[in-house]
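Lab manual, section 2.4: Encoding a predicted structure.

Procedure: take the sequence of the chain (217 residues), apply the prediction step described in section 2.3, and record the output as structure tokens. A sample record is shown.
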Amino acid sequence: MLRYTFSICLLGLSSLLFGQDAKPLKKKADWRPYDLKVGFNAIRSGRAWFESDISTHEGQVALALHRYNLVLDYGFEERQRGDSLDYSNSGSYVRFGFDRNFTKNKESGNVLSLGLRYARASFEDRMAFVEDQGFGEQEYILTNDNLSARWLEIALGLRGKIVSNLYMGFTMRWQFARKVEGEGLLKTFDIPGFGKTRRQNSTAFDYYLMWRIPFKK
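Recorded output:
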């Protein structure tokens, strides 16, 4: 009787183990790069047409792999300010970081992303003004020749295909944790790539034109 009961239990266990549908194996992530996008910031390049006191350009390179994009921005900026004083600021900046792409069809090249950037700027500025302290007018010139700044960004981005391999889209940035080094008597007004220093945190909106270079597997 015991042998009979054991045989039934063994048969039932075998049916349970081998009768179930096999679960599909999870597909291994493919981390090989599958496209490269190269482009420029249309808003920055277009500002010179509407604002005579600034000249700025920025390029972007984005390498796509799996569900992520590695992003590098490089730009330069020259700015003039002045009513009662003459202020100029010029330099370059770089941003790099990554985005998580939430679109399901990565082969389309479209991007809906959220990411993080580390940014750094190297620049110089100069301010000249005239004061009359009772002995006639005297011109004063203050300069910072070796300024640097760094900050972090959270970036929300969207890129969509327009035609062929041409893509367009925007990036919204929240810039924070700003730090400036190298200031003397003159406190800088602007940071290339960031904006006015009177704000510890800042927001920005940029629009990009990108050309996609897909990689063959």
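Check your result against the sample. The CA atoms of residues 116 and 154 lie 5 Å apart.
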